[in-house]
Amino acid sequence: MIDRRTALAGVAAMFGTALYAPLARAVGAEGPVGVPAISDGPPSAAVFTAPQRALMTALSERVIPTTDTPGAIAAGVPAYIEKLLADWSYPAERVPIVAGLDAIEKRSMTDYKVAGAKATPAQQDALLTLAMNDQIPGGKTFFEAFRQLVIAGYYTSEIGMTQEREYLPVPGEYNGAFPYSQVNKVYSA
Amino acid sequence: MAVTNRFDAIVIGSGVSGGFAAKELTEKGLRVLMLDRGRMVEHVEGYPYDGKPAYEVPARNQMPKPLMDSDYFIAKYGYVSPSNRSFYNDDRLNPYAYDEGEKFYWIRPGAVGGKSLIWGRWTFRWSADDFEANKREGIDGAWPIGYDDVAPWYSYVEKYIGVSGSRENLPYLPDSEFQPPMPMNVAEKWLKERLETQFPGRKLIHTRLSNMTEDKPDQNRSKCQFRNQCGNGCSFGAYFSTQAVTLPAARATGRLTLRSDAVVTNLEYDAARKKVTGVRFVDAKTGQAETVQANLVFLCASAMASTQILMNSRMGGGGRSHFDTSGTLGRYVMDHIFRVGAEGEIPGMTDLIEYGRRPGGVYVPRFRNLKGEEGVGFRRGYGYQGSARREPMAPVGFGKDMKHGMRQYGPWKFGMGAFGECLPYADNRVSLHANKVDRFGVPLMKFDVKFRDNELKMMADARIEGEKMLKAAGLTNVRSYEGAHIPGDAIHEMGGARMGADPRKSVLNGWSQAHDASNLYVTDGAQMASVSCVNPSLTFMALTARAADHAMRTKPWA
Fold this sequence. Notes:
The complex is a heterodimer.
Chain A: H1 4-15, H2 21-24, H3 50-63, H4 77-87, H5 95-112, H6 121-132, H7 139-155, H8 158-164, E1 175-179
Helix pairs in contact in A: 4-7, 5-6, 5-7, 6-7
Chain B: E1 2-4, E2 9-12, H1 16-27, E3 32-35, H2 65-71, H3 128-136, H4 147-161, E4 163-164, E5 178-179, H5 186-198, E6 205-206, H6 242-252, E7 256-259, E8 262-270, E9 275-283, E10 289-292, E11 296-299, H7 303-311, E12 340-346, E13 352-355, E14 362-364, E15 382-392, H8 400-405, E16 409-420, E17 429-437, E18 443-448, H9 453-472, E19 476-482, E20 513-514, E21 517-522, H10 537-554
Parallel strand pairs in B: 1-10, 2-3, 2-11, 3-7, 4-5, 11-21
Antiparallel strand pairs in B: 6-14, 8-9, 9-10, 12-16, 12-19, 14-15, 15-16, 17-18, 20-21
């Protein structure tokens, strides 16, 4: 994993000078002054009930599971999804997600006699597949939206950008014919 | 109301033009006050998200839709995001009459530095024919100057700001004083060879960009680091911005006073002497109005904002502007055609990817009507800006297979979009709203600008030719597109106070100097009598430096 600060220290050595202020500055949530704020803390209101949140969390991990790199839960995707639905979108946009979770929950009770969050990974995969194939009410709508949320949250997280993918904070050069075999990953934008 | 006269010159606006005016005038010995309506952004310290990846930016750097809809409903067409929003206008606080007249996207900055912080940075000279076309074609709006008048100023500006690009010796796209070009990638080289073979006379060349490929240690600027996060502000100073380039130079003289949050409402005028006597502005933080006096005024507020200030400088009762003896003020507004292009997949080379994020691409220079009318159904021409890249594979299903599948790249894809020349039309005009004013008391701008037959035919041609070229070059899955025709969308709006030899038909003379006030220069996009098809900022800078030189030689305030 690339440590961004290590990379930046390399830049400083390259210049033989002190680091520019924003490069030296510790990671923080500084915002510009006098412009509309973007809420950046915990969700201002709960979007999910506890069972919905547990199911959403479990399903996010099924969409992007832990493999040889961490999965959605380790990357903080469930928190990202709840934050986005609470504060970075319109209230109506959470409706298909919540409805889909409820439909999957109901199906889990019917098929497996257990709450969706407590179902086995294989059962959860079967439930997600039903949703993907629109064999649950609102399933396809839920699946498309939910998968987008998980993917967006994962590949913009620190784990997603720097472990699952490779991030070059300061590439320093451009090579338009670089062998993929030298990285075997996708570079984060 | 306070009245001060501590300054020799006032520069209104601090973008590419205003910053250059401040640099030139202070270096020539004048005490200059530079006013900007936006908030202060200092180089480096004012870039809170420089170098930060998405997970260190609010909302992962995706603008929340409710905020986009409430405050950035126009800025969204100008690529606003959480990391750069402090550089943009707040459309709720500072509106124009966007729901009246013809639809126009007036995409504005909201910070010192103007659009120099957020521009696309593509940097081209005009050709001799660009200056001559109006006259040759008998189109209303002959330029009073030609390429030779501007060429030395192009050189002067280019050497100072740093422009990367390749020498091509094309008469219709003169070379600049270049630093080495940014490399093409393997897919672009492949395309270049095939396209130029299939279409003799058409070229695919390196972009010409104000991102540097060599350091400028004397300006404390480093070459581009290939982060492609330019819009967050660049602490390396690798691309031209007021903050990185002209503001430090002006400050180094000790003769610059910079005032942010200063919203200029109008210019005061002595009709007997035909001189501007003062600049009135409102402090956006306190609401206090002030008038400042100086011998010389450079109006560089941006094409539309400068036109608005000129129109609002008038006798009471909504009379004609002091600067509109010709009746052409606010007319001949133009923008480039945009939102049309083609894309497709380049076969092969799938073992190769890009290392580094290059902030540019390649350029297909204009090839239409280069030798006058070619019978293609429209006048002038267009160029394409594009690049080849590989996107990660799209997700399939879910789970481990999806995740690991997304570790691969899809095929090389090439896309290019056209920028084309819009002709000047007297009826493409802006005006002051009859009864709506903003919070500073300035009448709202109203736009009646639309693309007409020539522009629409040009867009159709750009689509057809783009698709034809990519197919002939051997791309697969080629598609072309043509979006809505909304002026302003290209963010190359120009005109409104055009240059001309005849004071009865133009607002400014060949030195960017107002016919109605010899101590007033308007050196931004407002002065343009036509728009070429190339990106305009370099020409604004060259004309600004030229105008500053003229002012100092002729001392029009005397």
